[in-house]
Amino acid sequence: MTTEADALKFTAEQAVTANGKRIIETKNRQFLINGNGDIREFRPNDGANEALQVHTLTAVVDYIGKVSERSASPLIVQVVDENSVFVLGELDDFGNREVLIKAKAMHPCYPYGQWLDSESFIIALQAQFMTTEDGKVLLKFVGNLKDESAQTMVDDGVSQVATARSGVASVGKVVVPNPISLRPYRTFLEVEQQESDFVFRMHEGPKLALFSADGDAWRNTAIDLVAEYLSEKLVKFGKHVTVLA
Description:
Elements (H helix, E strand, L loop, with lengths): L3 H11 L1 E3 L2 E6 L2 E5 L5 E3 L10 E3 L2 H10 L8 E7 L2 E8 L5 E8 L11 E2 H10 L1 E2 L2 H11 L5 H4 L1 E2 L3 E7 L5 E7 L2 E5 L11 E8 L3 E6 L4 H18 L6 E4 L1
Parallel strand pairs: 5-8, 6-17
Antiparallel strand pairs: 1-2, 2-3, 3-4, 6-7, 7-8, 9-16, 10-14, 11-12, 12-13, 14-15, 15-16
Helix pairs in contact: 2-6, 3-4
């Protein structure tokens, strides 16, 4: 083909029509032209149609170690955040990257920044947090609150003191430090749950709330712990598995 006309003629001869669209093939590449004349390159994707949905890091390790469908191909294990891990395949010729697994952690989720009544707060503190010394003090404080405690509460912005029952008939004082160090469940259960600081507040009702006081620095630590766990478990499967965080 020596002229532009010859090139256009050749292109026209390679075009077929399907579902109202013209398909043009040139240099082993296919282009779709719709009725408006818009051109889009056709890029086939022969990877997995849908990623497997799991909820533990153990399932991620088991898939890579026991499922042979991608055992010879490079894999990337991406720690997206403290609650999400993806297993990705390699790029194909068109820049598509296959997503094989999406792992989403399942754990209790405390409503930070929301005011709870004392009964709901006690249940959440026992069910959604691991035991710490500060947690024990807070549980004792809340468990012994009297309805009129807000009338006698002293708050200097650092600690709160409220009248509370320390015996059957005696009256004592329980001091709760602020910030308070707690270990909520908030990442995959295979790794250590991070202890961090929270501000504890109370007002009439009584209503109680916890507010994060560490600037969410715990998230980076949790991501690192998830990546370390996966790296240790996956190293035996060879260098074709790369963990990124």
